[in-house]
Specification:
It contains ten helices and twelve strands. The chain is of the alpha+beta class.
């Protein structure tokens, strides 16, 4: 029996879910705020709005559908590599109304291309890859737009219920043992995996102990209170230089207002920093310094993925920590259903075979690894997605955050950023090498 109807339905659902979120993040603001630059680190939200439409036109209308270009004049304007974010407000961008009209015109043709797709033959069409790629691209920009909302000054415009509370009665061990030995890293079979996740390959990882949960705000406060930001012993030379030049003294958006308690600004609201949440908005240098202060280290990318995917009982590598079942609300904090991480220890049904929790969702987790290609890497379908970023300038993050859509979050998914970045929804957990006897 053909699986085409199922693939078509899945692709359509993911495209519609991404678009609904894009509009949620933009319809809540007036035109002036959509076209303003809320931080030089970020594009105007109106740029992102039209950019996702331009990418959809390029890949789904033109490449997959072999149809004439609708707006070739927009290709340069919304090319992320041609115009740095800080320069984009000065460009002759589409107004929000024009951008929404353009998105509607592109989507109308996209639906026709989707309905006619064979889901086979052309590599772009096999298993609906190109539709999944575009849905993931839009969701990644939605996460970036949510980060812009966090940087935006002004009254709150977004709301969401708090995540479920962890069981107070439960006592988890501080760390879990990940046994040594080989495992299969990456994938060669996931139809919507992106090129940097491929191909699957064996990696031998020695045994190590990993934090059961991400480092919490309370634990990070101990680092601050112990003078961690003032002691160069815990920082790499580059990290110490950045800490001093950027005057880092606490995670991003934390501050004190005359009292002893740390406060934070979260999407326009000021609140006391919750002790039991995973720490958020720390750069790689801060995460690395904390780990050194604690007598531990950041896990390598291979260690993180083995902890998240490897099942010692079967020798298999799961798609997700809990198995191959797609994420549900019982498994992880994903998809912007909440606007903050869940308390550490939440989501027992999402635990990995090693016992670690919250490896997917809540906060991106910095790893010790530079962003590099896997053995046998091949560009597909364009080098600007991964290849141009390979090298020592970028550190790998794993696991996704509360701002990540399930379509762009799996055990093999790789994110990367500069080690100075703090506006992203990133935290970390630490590990230590297991002693050999």
């Amino acid at each position: 029996m053909s699986r085409r109807p199922q693939r078509l339905s899945h692709a359509l659902a993911e495209l519609e879910t991404a678009r609904k979120r894009t509009l949620t993040l933009t319809d809540c603001l007036g035109d002036d705020e959509l076209m303003a630059q809320h931080s030089p680190l970020m594009s105007p939200l109106g740029w992102d709005l039209a950019h996702v439409g331009n990418q959809e036109e390029i890949w789904l209308v033109r490449e997959a559908g072999r149809r004439p270009a609708l707006r070739p004049d927009l290709d340069d304007l919304y090319d992320a590599f041609r115009h740095p974010r800080a320069d984009r407000p000065a460009l002759p961008l589409l107004s929000p109304a024009e951008a929404r009209r353009y998105l509607g015109q592109v989507r109308e043709q996209t639906l026709e291309v989707l309905a006619a797709s064979p889901f086979a033959g052309d590599p772009l069409h096999v298993d609906g890859f190109v539709f999944g790629m575009v849905a993931q691209h839009e969701q990644q920009h939605d996460e970036t737009m949510l980060a812009t909302h966090q940087l935006r000054a002004g009254s709150p415009v977004l709301s969401a219920p708090a995540p479920p509370r962890a069981s107070a009665a439960e006592r988890l061990p501080r760390e879990v043992l990940v046994p040594g030995g080989p495992f299969t890293m990456g994938t060669s079979t996931d139809p919507w995996a992106l090129d940097n996740e491929r191909p699957a390959h064996a990696v031998d990882v020695p045994a190590f102990w990993l934090d059961t949960v991400p480092v919490t705000n309370a634990a990070y406060e101990e680092f601050i209170a112990d003078g961690g930001y003032d002691d160069p012993r815990w920082w790499t030379p580059g990290g110490w230089e950045h800490r001093r030049s950027a005057e880092l003294a606490a995670p991003g958006f934390w501050f004190r207002d005359g009292g002893p308690a740390w406060l934070r600004r979260r999407f326009g609201q000021v609140e006391e920093v919750p002790a039991d949440e995973p720490v958020l908005h720390v750069c790689w240098y801060e995460a690395d310094a904390y780990a050194r202060w604690a007598g531990r280290r950041l896990p390598t990318e291979a260690e993180w993925e083995k902890a998240a995917r490897h099942d010692p009982a079967t020798g298999r590598s799961f798609t997700y920590p809990w198995g191959d079942t797609p994420p549900g609300p019982e498994h992880a904090n994903l998809g912007q259903h909440h606007l903050q991480p869940a308390p550490a220890g939440s989501y027992p049904e999402g635990a990995a075979p090693c016992g670690a929790r919250q490896l997917l969702g809540d906060v991106w987790e910095w790893t010790a690894s530079d962003f590099q290609p896997y053995p046998g890497f091949a560009v597909f379908p364009y080098k600007e997605y991964s290849e141009v970023f390979f090298g020592p300038s970028y550190k790998v993050l794993r696991g996704g955050s509360f701002a990540v859509s399930p379509v762009a979050c799996r055990g093999t998914f790789r994110n990367w950023d500069y080690p100075i970045r703090r506006q992203i929804f990133a935290g970390f957990r630490t590990c230590r090498t297991a002693e050999e006897h």
